[in-house]
Amino acid sequence: MRAVAWHGKRDVRVDDVPDPTIQEPTDALVRITSTAICGSDLHLYEVMGPFMGEGDILGHEPMGIVEEVGSEVTNCKVGDRVVMPFQISCGHCWYCNQGLNTQCETTQVREEGMGAALFGYTKLYGEVPGGQAEFLRVPQANNTTTVVPEGPDDERFLYLSDVLPTAWQAVEYAAVPDGGTLVVLGLGPIGDMSCRIAMHKGQRVIGVDMVPERLQRVSGRGAEVVNFDQVENLGDTIREMTDGRGPDAVVDAVGMEAHGSTAAHAAHTVIGMLPDKIAEKMMQTAGVDKLSALYAAIDIVRRGGTISLSGVYGGEADPLPMLTIFDKQIQLRMGQANVKRWVPEIMPLLTDEDPLGVDDFATHRLPLEEAPEAYKTFQEKADGAIKIVLKP
Ligand SMILES: NC(=O)c1ccc[n+]([C@@H]2O[C@H](COP(=O)([O-])OP(=O)(O)OC[C@H]3O[C@@H](n4cnc5c(N)ncnc54)[C@H](O)[C@@H]3O)[C@@H](O)[C@H]2O)c1
Ligand SMILES: [Zn+2]
Ligand SMILES: [Zn+2]
User: Fold this and answer.
1) What is the pLDDT of residue 292?
2) 62 near 136, Cβ under 8 Å?
3) Which residue(s) pair with 14 in the sheet?
4) Which pairing describes strands 249-252 and 306-309: parallel, antiparallel, or unpaired?
5) What pLDDT is attached to residue 271?
6) End-to-end Cα, the chain, rounded Å
7) Candidate of 89, 194, 312 to mutate for ligand 1, largest count of ligand atoms within 8 Å of Cβ
8) What's the per-residue H, E or C state across 134-150?
C-alpha cells in the first residue's frame, strides 16, 4: 500500500510499504478514506527527529471503512464506517475506567516511561504505524474505534479523531465560570475549535495569533481577536480588555514551537543537526523548548485563574517562573486529550445544523500522494492552509 513515511527533518515521502494485517484477536483493519495532518505532526517534521525512525508511518487523524476484524472485536464489524482516536486504549483498565484513556494501562509504553501508545507518533509512544496510509491496523479495536453513521461526508466525523476532543478537553479543563472570559493562544485547528466550543458554551472569547487568515476566521465566528505581532505588550493589551484583571482562563493551543523567541529557535536548529543520541539527550535535559506561549499565558491569566495546556510540550528541564505561578495562585491543567471520554458529549453537535462548523473546517483536501507538499504548505502556513485533509 501507499503510506506517508518520515525520512528526516522536513522530509516526508509517500512510500510503497507492506499492507498491514490482523495480528491480535483485538485488532481491526481499516481502509482509510480521509486522514488529516495535525499541528502535532509538525513537531515530528521539525524538532522530534531524535525520537523517529526512518520509514515510520505518520498520521493519527484517520477514518475509514472496516475491512477485517479479529475474533474478539465486537465494537465494529466489516463494512462499518469508523473514526479512530489518536491514542490506542483498551476501554476497560483502571485508567480507562476513569476516562483517562491517555494513561491506558494496557497500552502504556513502559519501556519509555510514557502513557498510552499513539498512532504514528515516535518511539516514545510505541512507534505504532500511523493512519496517513491506505490501510491501518487498529489495535484494541473495541475501544479504539468509534462507529459513525452513514450519510454525511467524512469531515462531519473526521475531527472526532483529535481536533474536537482536544479542543473540548482544553475548554473543559479551562473551567471558565458562568459569564467568564477565555483567552485562546494560537488559532491553528486546535485553538480555532477551542474558540468555537467556548462560544457555543456562552463564554466571552479572545483569540490570539499572528496569522491574518487565522485571526479572520475566528473573528468571523464572533470572537474578539488580538494580533500579537501588532501589540506592544500582549499581557497589557489583554488586561485592558478585561477590567485590568485578565481572563479567568487561558488555553495554550500553541505548544513548544511558539514564535516569539529567536534564541530558542536557534537552539532548535542546532539540535536538529546533531547526531540522534546527543540530540535526544539535549531534548530531554537541556530545556530548549520554546516556552513563550506558556510564559504569555502565565502573564495573561488573572490571579486564581486556570491555564489549560493543549499545546504539546516535550522538554524535561524547562525553567518556569515559579514565584509568579505560586503568587498568582494559578491552576495548571494539561495533557493529551482523553479522546473517547469526550466523544459522547460532542456527537450530538455533529448534526446538519453543524453548530461547530466542522463541514467546512478544512481549507485543503489533497490526494495522499501530495503529502510532501501538504506538510510543507501547512508548516509554512502558506496558501491560507489551516487544516489539510488527505484522501488515500
Ligand atoms: N493535547 C492534545 O491532545 C493535542 C492534540 C492535538 C494537537 N495538540 C497540540 O496543539 C498545538 C496546536 O495544534 P494545531 O494543529 O492547532 O497546530 P498549528 O501549528 O496549526 O497552530 C499553532 C498556532 O499557534 C500560533 N502561534 C505561534 N506562536 C504563538 C504565540 N507565541 N502566541 C500565540 N499564537 C502563536 C501559530 O501562528 C499557529 O497558528 C500543537 O502544539 C499540537 O501539538 C495537542
Ligand atoms: Zn493531532
Ligand atoms: Zn485502558
Assistant:
1) 82
2) yes
3) 4
4) parallel
5) 59
6) 10
7) 312
8) CEEEECCCCCCCEECCC
Q: d(Cα 193, Cα 180) in Å, to the nearest integer?
A: 18
Model pTM score: 0.94
pLDDT single digits (tens) 73-111 = 999 999 999 999 999 999 999 999 999 999 999 999 999
Give CA–CA dist 78/74, Å, rounded: 11
- The pLDDT of residue 291 is 79
pLDDT the model gives residue 272 = 63
Is 106:90 a contact under the CB 8 Å cutoff?
yes
CA distance to 30, 33, 146, 360, 368, per residue, from 365 (Å): 20, 12, 23, 11, 9
Residue nearest to atom 25 of ligand 1 (CA): 186
The per-residue pLDDT for 288 is 45
pLDDT of residue 278: 66
385 is written with which cell numbers?
492552509
250: helix, strand or coil: strand
> DSSP letter at 115?
-
Ligand 1 nearest-atom number relative to CA 386:
20
| pLDDT computed for residue 42 by the predictor | 94
C-alpha cell at 107: 497500552
In the chain, which residues have pLDDT < 70?
260-275, 277-289, 317
Domains of the chain: 2-161+338-391 (3.90.180.10), 164-334 (3.40.50.720)
Q: Give the three-class secondary structure for 67.
A: strand
Per the structure block, which three cell numbers stand in for 19?
499492507
Residue 279: what pLDDT?
A: 67
Residues flanking ligand 1, CB < 6 Å:
38-40, 42-43, 162, 166, 185-191, 208-211, 214, 228, 253-255, 258-260, 292-293, 296, 310-312, 336-337
Cell numbers for 4? 506517508
Q: Which atom of ligand 1 is nearest to the CA of 256?
A: 41
Q: Which of 22, 21, 7 is nearest to 58 (CA)?
A: 7
Compute the distance between CA of residue 216 and CA of residue 238 in angstroms, rounded to an integer. 18
Grid cell in block for residue 108: 502504556
